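Exam review. A common question shows you a sequence with its structure tokens and asks you to describe the fold in words. Practice with the pair below. Do the first one on your own.
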Amino acid sequence: MTQICRGRWTHEHAGELTVFLIGMRINRFRRPDAWGPVLAAMGPMLAELSQDPESGFLGYEMSLGRRGPVLTQYWRSTEQLYAYAGDREAAHRPAWSAFNKRARRVPGAVGIWHETYQVAKAESMYVDLPPTGLAKATSGRPVSARLDQARTRLSPVTSAS
């Protein structure tokens, strides 16, 4: 069982930060031949990124929506995210090509989306949870009296609070 960090925690991070949301939506449940490979492709990419500290990948959280998974990924920089996406030697490019081929064969069976955010300020609060989210991807620290309010935790990511 994952260790729960008792009490109130926040994240601590200095430097650039990019948050990347990516998800898939199953539009036709009866076409697992179209959406199954999309679902299966993410695991190897996450493993590849997690094993390469130079990639700029800091970590991720996965959740499951009504029609498919959503990943929140944390990156050191947008440039490193884009470098991975365009790397012909990495797992992403073949997965993207395969998705495009399947999408032409079974149009509309599965959708994908992503959003990229360059973070100038970030605030977080975690209470009685295992390391989660931004605190898991960067580092966590207990909330002190000085960081008791959200507005004091919302600081530029370029300075460790």
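Now try the second one, then compare your answer with the model answer below.
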Amino acid sequence: MSSRTPAQAPERIILGIDPGTTIMGYGVIRSRGKSHVEVVEMGALHLSKYKDHALKLKKIFDRVTSLIETHAPDDLAVEAPFFGQNVQSMLKLGRAQGVALAAALAHEIPVAEYAPRRVKQAVTGSGAASKEQVAGMVQRTLAIRAEDMPKELDATDGLAVALCHHFQLATPKMQRGAGGWKAFLAENPDRVRS
């Protein structure tokens, strides 16, 4: 068994984005090791007051850039657009996501994209969970006090995307060419019991 404490584990900052052209949710988490995760910041950018779509995209870019400059994240995780019936809405959502990705790439931050069902599955155990169920699990997982919970579920969705990425990073890769268990064991000898 490892004697390594969370304080000794490498720190990682993850910025999670739930893109939107009406409200963009975001969450920043700090992780130390596999199990110690805490909220750094969460919130929502309200965009409905801006009628010009290009201006909304600029506001998204500016806010994501500000979060990057403030927190210096190691990774940006973003929720992929949901493929619905309304093509115009899907295009606008894709642009919002692209602007967030561009802000991260301009700062040379690695990006990851997760489908909405994947985020829900990672956080709640069910890919069909409601926004309220996601918010509840985010609150429990990150030990957020009830009075500190945001009014907008978009903010907890942003945290959920960051948590999904954290869980993905904590899971050994099993695919061929990524090293698999043999590489994981070689890189983590302190995690092996005799």
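Model answer, second protein: The longest strand covers residues 36-46. The beta strands are 11-18, 23-32, 36-46, 75-79, 111-114. Full marks require stating both points clearly.
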